[in-house]
């Protein structure tokens, strides 16, 4: 038995394993290029569910998006990466940001993100933060957005739903 397993077994017997697991989770979520605590809180709460092609609900920067199988996927803007067989994808729109600036699109699951504001081309990401081992958050990508509506496309998602959030960078 490895040393780690021995320690975990001892902690289970003393009731401290949940504390250790919580500490490991906090550590995994805490080491990021920027804070994702706001997103973690939003994703852990009750979110509206919307179908692919819908708008993020007014007053909610995040939603659970019901996706389409890749074989049936049609996105309004050609993706920078083609859909993968056996995966899902879709898109949501968001109202124009109240003020231009840096915004982050955060996802609960592994996926490819494309963002457009002109309906024809995708924006180049400014920065990326991945969170392997952080429950409920897989990645957060920053984009510079103007004061016009936004299209957020996701593809290569392993399951039929994903949590998507659009937040002003702190």
In a few lines, what is going on in this structure?
The chain is an alpha+beta fold and 170 residues long. It contains three helices and ten strands.
Question: Could you explain how this protein is built, in words?
Answer:
- The structure is a single chain.
- The chain has 170 residues and is of the alpha+beta class.
- The protein has helices at 3-14, 17-30, 37-44; strands at 49-51, 62-66, 68-69, 88-94, 101-107, 112-116, 127-130, 139-145, 150-157, 161-168.
- Strand 7 and strand 8 (139-145) form a beta hairpin.
- The radius of gyration is 18 Å and the shape is globular.
> How many DSSP H or I helices?
3
What is the level-2 CATH architecture name of the largest domain? Sandwich
* SSE pattern: HHHEEEEEEEEEE
Helix-strand category: alpha+beta
Overall pLDDT score: 84
What proportion of the residues form beta strands (DSSP E)?
25-35%
List how many beta strands DSSP finds: 10
Instruction: Find the CATH topology of the largest domain.
Output: Jelly Rolls
Assign the CATH class of the largest domain: Mainly Beta
For the largest sheet, list the strands in their spatial order: 1-2-10-5-8-7
Separation of the first and last Cα atoms: 45 Å
The number of domains is 2
Poorly predicted spans = 3-14, 16-27
Q: Specify the biggest β-sheet.
A: 6 strands, mixed
Radius of gyration: 18 Å
Shape: globular
| Helix percent band | 10-25%
Protein name: Lipoprotein
Keywords: Signal
Organism: Methylobacterium persicinum
Signal peptide: 1-23
């Amino acid at each position: 038995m490895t040393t780690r397993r021995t320690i975990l077994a001892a902690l289970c017997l003393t009731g401290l394993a949940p504390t250790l697991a919580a500490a490991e989770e906090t550590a995994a979520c805490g080491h990021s290029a920027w804070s994702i605590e706001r997103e973690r809180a939003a994703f852990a709460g009750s979110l509206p569910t919307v179908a692919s092609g819908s708008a993020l609900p007014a007053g909610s920067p995040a939603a659970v998006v019901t996706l389409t199988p890749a074989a049936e996927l049609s996105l309004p803007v050609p993706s920078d990466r083609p859909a993968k067989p056996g995966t899902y994808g879709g898109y949501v729109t968001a109202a124009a940001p109240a003020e231009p600036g840096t915004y982050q699109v955060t996802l609960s699951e592994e996926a490819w993100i494309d963002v457009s504001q002109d309906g024809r081309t995708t924006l180049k990401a400014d920065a990326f933060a991945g969170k392997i081992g952080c429950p409920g958050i897989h990645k957060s990508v920053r984009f510079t957005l103007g004061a016009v509506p936004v299209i957020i496309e996701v593809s290569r998602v392993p399951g039929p739903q994903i949590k998507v959030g659009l937040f002003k960078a702190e």
